[in-house]
Amino acid sequence: MGSLTAAGALGGCSSPVGQAFTGSAGPASLLNFWHPFTGGDGAQLVTMQSGFRKSSPDVELKSTTLVWGSPYYTKLTLATLGNRPPQVAITHVSRLPTLAASGLLREISSSELDEHGLKPDRFAKGAFESAHHGGKLYALPLDTHPFVLYYRTDVAKKAGLLDDKGQLTDVDGPDKFLDAMRAAKEVTGVWGGSIATVKDPATCWRLFWSLYRQLGADLVTDGGRKVVMDVGAAEEALAFIRRMSAEKLIPPGADGDGGAITLLTSGKAGFLMDGEWQLLAVQGAVKDKFDMRTFPRIFRDAPYACAADSHAFILPKAPSEKAQRADHALDFSRSMLEASLDWAKGGHIPAWQPTAKSDAYQRLLPQAHYADAAEGAAYDPAAWYSGADSNLYRRFSDVVASVVGGHTRPGPGATRMLAAAKDLAGMEAPV
Amino acid sequence: MSTATSAGTSARTAGSTRWTASGMLLPFGAFYVMFLLGPLLYTAVAGFFNDSLVKDGPGKWVGTANYAEALGSPEFWSSLGHTLWFTVLTTVPLMLLALTLALMTDRFSRGKWFFRLAFFAPFMLPSSVIALLFMWIYADQIGLAQGVVKWFGVQAAPSWLGDPNWAMISIAVATIWWTIGFNFVIYLAALQEIPRDVHEAAAIDGAGPWQRIRLVIVPMLGRATTLVAVLQLVASLKVFDQIYMMTNGGPDDATRPSLLYIFQTGFTDGRAGYASTVALLLFLIILLISLVWFALIRRTEKEV
Asked: Is the Cβ pair B269, A430 closer than 8 Å?
């Protein structure tokens, strides 16, 4: 204890240990940034940060990588409650309702946006709307990251699924998509498509939510306290999911830790349903023998929808203006947004319109082939128990995985989902 | 005069010994209060509030509502059931197998070090390494274990971590492989303490090898068995890390133990008050089971 205090005193307030003990705001030049990006995303981020370091030599950027998922949000929450928040951090906008409703975030005013060149019309509309809570802006979206469809061009070609431009012909509608997978299965001899349903609640949720939203159905309102779930639509979505595995077009269980992707990269499946952030992993394995497109429109009852989320910059509420350093944080966010093209190389669709509309991005392949997905982005329902890596994911995904594996039929599955939603909505909320 | 002096010296020695003992306990005592009693007390208090992870302060007073919710929740009982199921799946083999391996190793007069190292080595690995290793072994479609059973002619290989009926067994097997070294080492040490004369006497009396193990050696390992049984039981009841990493409680909550239930309600849902209640209930249950188990084991030890 004594030695730690001494170290804090010796290292001055700039050392994180010293700050933790004294609770000081640290030097005005210090900018702490927390994010959950590892792997390909992490590598792109390093490039983007070095740009900021060059352009703002007077700011000392301290970037901290933490493990993705609910532990990340626990740390962010507790650090903010304990008056030691980073000046700027990444959140999924699906986690924004809880963070904002608990009063952990600093609002970003429109005058600040103007001052830092962050006018609303420079952001993708859907992403920018999702960064609001209760009519106030709490985040600056960096991207939209949707659930998409990967396919092997060599398999698709042999299966006769490509048009003269070398792109996938129409796979929209339940039967057309299954036919396409059937044709691919004849080529691969193993599976038509692949999706991670074992140990991967996030992917199961995205598949379900994409289909459910294409049926125009809603799940909860009133911050998650009221369930408005359409059980019929849920059953229809689950029935389609079951058809894929019952007709042996996708495996009854593919592993979330690389198993589903390996089926595609090793040529045992022609299609992969996953998030666009797997782009670098797939690219690394099969080079240019694959392409991507938006997740097919299976149902036509509502405008096109695909499950999506956005990474966004937030300013966790600091105990004082001196500790907040909002100007630095906004400058940093602006700089990162301007480096969005690097971010897009990792697969994400930039929310920053100057980048999204640029020629450089539109020439970026296969990224440009699914850029439309941003317009159909279906965000998670706003509730304290929903969002990235939440208990809602877990409860709903258990049903999806069970339906894919053939252990639960779609009807009872939908009933179980309703019971889970009601159970969560009935709990005493922490916000 | 001389008697008085010596009496005074011994009194002073006794006094300073008393203070030395307390003084040496002080650092431990401070940590005990700070990191065990303090949090335990806080947990007990927080359970009566709607304490939230995302807000300051203890929250709204809810009395015994959290207790009513926990005791009436099927999730609480199912997670407790999984904890007990895991305990049965691991404690029994971990004791029997460790004993068997130790008995076999003890028979080697040369090269004993090799077996001791081989069986103990996995125990030195961190749980994250074990989880990663077995996630690859058990992986669907691409994993080693599915390949092996297919090689043996099984057409539809089970989804080791994806099938609710197999997942807990798969995790238990990984846990046994990983932790058996600890019990093994305790048993081996106890075996080596049995004097050679006992073996010789038993042999001279005409006891065969199996009789010697059953009637002489195993009873003489009573104290080691008590130790292993109690430590293993408590360790199994507290299972968390390998399950958190390998299945996160799935599929269909089939592998979710009580600690993971506490983690999910407390950290994922942010309901710290409710999670505290469940934590305290689990603490009491483990305490009770341990005491009963300890009493049972002690009795068998005395009977011998």
From this structure: yes
